[in-house]
Amino acid sequence: MVHWSPFVQSFKKKYPWVQLAGHQGNFKAGECGTILKKHTPKEQWALRKLMADILRPYIPEYKGVVEKNSEKYVQMQDLLGEFDNPSVMDCKIGTRTYLEEELKKAREKPKLRKDMYQKMIEIDPTEPTSEEHRLGAVTKPRYMQWREFMSSSATLGFRIEGVKKGDGHSSRDYKTVRTKDQISECFNFFIDGDPSIQTKYIRRLKAIRATLESSEFFALHEVIGSSLLFVHDRTGKASVWMIDFGKTTPLPPSESNDHRTPWVEGNHEDGYLFGLDMMIEVFSDMKPKKCPVETNSNKPSTKTDPTPATAPSAMDTQSGSTSTDAVDTTQPSEALPISSSISNVSSTASPPSVTAAPS
């Protein structure tokens, strides 16, 4: 039982993304300075391995497994703990957010999802096939493939999942943000046009990329559904962490990934470094400009092409679509200590308005 306390009040205030993401049951306040995320064996295993890898400075510090009310949770250090009223952005990284085994299982034993069909037609009523319309349902891989083609995942290797700004404004309305210009506008909105925050994020992303390219763990694993968590505050402190390892899977023996090769079913490539390359490019090319005080009339627009690329249909067996600079020397003074934690901020800040339906 988590008792009401100043820490829990702080937790609820600092983590409104938990409500936005619909993951209320996945997180709890832990001991002071930690958070608890619902336990999955894959994520626990990955975090334990990462604590011994050179990627450790960029990963939430794993503090073991605890049990509350008969539920198991992974305990991690609070990544936001040393920030003052932080702004937070979650970007899903990679060209693919589903495991190859999920495709295989769905072909062998399709499970129809009415909820995902509803989400699909809210954004594009013309997307489902006539058979999917008749059933009023789609399979999960079909929905996830479509999501990637609707967003920037398939073309740029990452997508914005959510943003929460320090002033409390939050949004997850990024489902059809697809172009570099649209993403640049969203990034600028997130940092409020602050070039010093931009520089710190670029430096940190390049340090992560350099470390990934030398990491044995990274070379030998398929990293699916992971995110990069961006955090900054009004004091100028800023950093980025790798989070969410519930779908991180070891590759078959004697295989390795370069994380840039386009995915073809069977090669296990995830497009992680391709996405990171594109993200660094967008951040670097962005010309920061101060955002005006936000009103309904002056909110920046990120309207999308009304005819986005068509995603693979239901159980296609076709193949999907689908860094190394100096270490971040500013980290000790400008970012959190080398380890900290939070996981899955899959929905958090108030962006430019986007023409997409709520999830």
From TrEMBL:
Keywords: ATP-binding, Kinase, Nucleotide-binding, Transferase. It is an enzyme of class 2 (transferase). The keyword Nucleotidyltransferase does not apply. It holds the Pfam family IPK. GO terms for biological process: inositol phosphate biosynthetic process; phosphatidylinositol phosphate biosynthetic process. Belongs to the inositol phosphokinase (IPK) family. This is Kinase. It comes from the Eukaryota. PANTHER family: INOSITOL POLYPHOSPHATE KINASE, KINASE. Residues 291-359 are annotated as: Disordered. InterPro entries: IPK (IPR005522), IPK_sf (IPR038286). Residues 294-307, 315-333 have a biased composition (Polar residues). Its EC number is 2.7.-.-. Coiled coil: none annotated. Residues 337-359 have a biased composition (Low complexity). One of its GO terms (molecular function) is ATP binding. The lineage of its organism: Eukaryota, Metazoa, Echinodermata, Eleutherozoa, Asterozoa. One of its GO terms (cellular component) is nucleus. It comes from Patiria miniata (Bat star).
